Amino acid sequence: MLQEQLPKLRDVYIPHADNWVATDGESILGFIGMVENHIGGLFVAPEAHRGGVGRLLPARSGMMKGGQSRCSA
What we know:
By secondary structure, the chain is an alpha+beta fold. The protein has one domain (2-64): Aminopeptidase, CATH 3.40.630.30. It has two helices and three strands, in the order αβββα. The chain has helices spanning 2-13, 53-64, and strands at residues 18-23, 28-35, 38-44. Strands 1-2-3 form a three-stranded antiparallel sheet, with helices on one face. A hairpin with a 4-residue loop joins strand 1 (18-23) and strand 2. The protein is globular, with a radius of gyration of 12 Å. The protein starts with a helix and ends in a 9-residue tail after the last helix.
């Protein structure tokens, strides 16, 4: 399923979002794409699950954008 969405993710979503990446200094742990104050996508590497990355990224990106981030389903 992800392979089918890759072109849209690469060509549409990522270029139109403000993106932040979480790393441990060597590896990418996850990233978030913000569209205005909405979370457009949040991805965490499986090896980083339950490590707080999924909470850190929305909090940091909201701070960087000068407000709170909202998640819409």
